[in-house]
Please model this.
Amino acid sequence: MNKEIQNFSNPKKDLLLIIVAVLIGFVVSQFVVGLYILVYNFFSDNPLNLEGISSIISNPNMRTHFLVIQSFTSLIVFFLAPYIYLRRKKEFLSNLLRFNKIQISPLLILSFATIFFILFNGLIIEWNKNIEFPPFLSSLEEYAKNRELELEELTLFLVSFENFNQYFLGIIAVAIIPAFCEEYLFRGVIQKKLELIFKNIHVAIFLSSFVFSFFHFQFYGLIPRMFLGILFGYFYYFSNNLSYPIIAHFINNFFALSLFYFSYSGLIDLSVEDVNNYQFPLFLSLLSLAISLYFLRLFYLNVLSTKKII
Model:
């Protein structure tokens, strides 16, 4: 078990208070969003409206504003809120945010492992989309499917970048900020708390990955996002360096964003809808998984040899 996680006198209490801090952060973020809209609408002739998906996607100007709103929401909820609580635990926080030196070799291996896992995960995405609930949960299934359709419609609107400036803002709002903030919370904080509670790193990785996926409130993306969290969790466990899962998370989001941008710009011969629903054949998906696991093991061995040298 990592030494820095032993700074928690009561890990269960700490974990509970961190979750409470995140929920409070969400409430604060909604207040900030409301203030942002209020100030903008006061000075603008083209007011913003976030009341429903249709009101958002009907206004092309909302794309930029929504990306900005998403940015400071992620910062408040996933970084600032837990940071304010953790600032009392200076030794833990300094270790968490230390960011050890990144080595080129494990970074390249991590990149290949992540990309091949993305190719495999398309299979899980499609499987998760087609899960059917038992009859007595039909109302819940209808709600989940309607919610999924709304989120898919919003996502396609947000990533249909009309120019490079919007694409660049998308990289910041959807790739850079979430990668740092979410890995800081779910891997750097929650995974370590769970490891201390259960005394088992694998349980900690799986549970923190479930929480990571659950907090996105998207049932029909729950399993593939959880699998990604597991991959990021092992990157962190093997290296004890938060930089690596942050980079892997960035690669995943950046890869998807770039495909959408290239599609909308006509640089690839696929529509935005085709990109969103693209899936590798079963054999290639499983082959991609095998290659990804090979690179994951290679990452572990490489980091291990680097530690021995140091």
